[in-house]
Amino acid sequence: MLKETYPEALVITDVCMCEYTDHGHCGLVDSDGTIDNDSTLELLAREALSHARAGCDIVAPSDMMDGRIGFIRKTLDNNGFENTAIMSYAAKYCSCFYGPFRDAAGSAPQFGDRRTYQMDPANLREALREVALDIEEGADIVMVKPAMAYLDVIKAVKDKYAYPLAAYNVSGEYSMIKAAAAQGWLDEQRAMMETLTSIKRAGADMIITYFAKDAAKYLNEHR
Questions:
Q1: In this predicted structure, what is the pLDDT of residue 101?
Q2: What is the residue-averaged pLDDT of the chain?
Q3: Partners of 145 in the beta sheet?
Q4: In the list 11, 127, 213, 223, which could disulfide-bond 91, CB 3.0-4.6 Å?
Q5: In what helix (H) or strand (E) does residue 1 lie, and over which residues does it extend?
Q6: Catalytic pick from 145, 155, 213, 217?
Q7: What domain range is 13 assigned to?
Q8: Dihedral of the CA atoms 55, 60, 65, 70 (nearest 10)?
Q9: CA atoms lying within 13 Å on the CB side of residue 127
């Protein structure tokens, strides 16, 4: 419907299993509670293919299963969707800053957490390895998520690979500014623009943010 109504719009879809599982994890779970990485790959590829058939321009796997970019790329290519791009959540950290979104979407895991497949917030070197693997497997864009607490990661990825790089300014980062502004502690508009500018300055080519409409309005008014 989006592509029919706004054919000029670029549509990007989130590819993950968490919204389809009763346990809320991003992959299939074995009887012992272990995430079954390899069995999840085919399902992620089928999901991505269904999105491409519906008309999306870019699929964005957010699950952090190993090997999924190559699996999805091969599936898309084999079904005639060579021009459907992949934006990989390449360095997605196991962060507390996803909290407001998870509360709103009811997507928190029903047991355990996502530390076994999302990244340790203290680890920068692994992010570089994850990005390198996703580029090798065929990602067209790589992403660092979250953004504000990971500006050093954004810079390191951009400096090392000079590859199209997205950064995700997530719900917790957005909510902190909104909450502080509501208390009169910050100028919301200035805090928004300083934050987005810092992400851009660190090296992001594109920013995914809940501030998108407000930022677009501000930028259009201050050309």
A1: 62
A2: 89
A3: 92
A4: 127
A5: none
A6: 145
A7: 2-221
A8: 70
A9: 28
Concerning whether 3 is annotated as a catalytic residue, the answer is: no
Question: CB count, 10 Å around CB of 99?
Answer: 14
| 131-156 residue pLDDT tens | 999 999 999 999 999 999 999 999 99
Segment 102-120 shows an average pLDDT of: 60
Active-site hit among 92, 200, 213, 217: 92
Tokens in use for 87? Answer: 């934006």
* 145 included as an active-site residue: yes
Report the alpha-carbon distance of residue 75 to residue 72 in Å, rounded. 5
Strand order in the sheet with 165-169: 12-15, 58-61, 85-92, 141-145, 165-169, 206-209
When divided into structural domains, the chain yields a total of: 1
Q: What's the pTM value of the predicted model, to 2 decimals?
A: 0.87
Structure tokens at 142: 């790589």
Written as six digits, the tokens of 3 are 């592509």
Query: How many alpha carbons lie under 13 Å from residue 189 in its C-beta half-sphere?
Result: 7
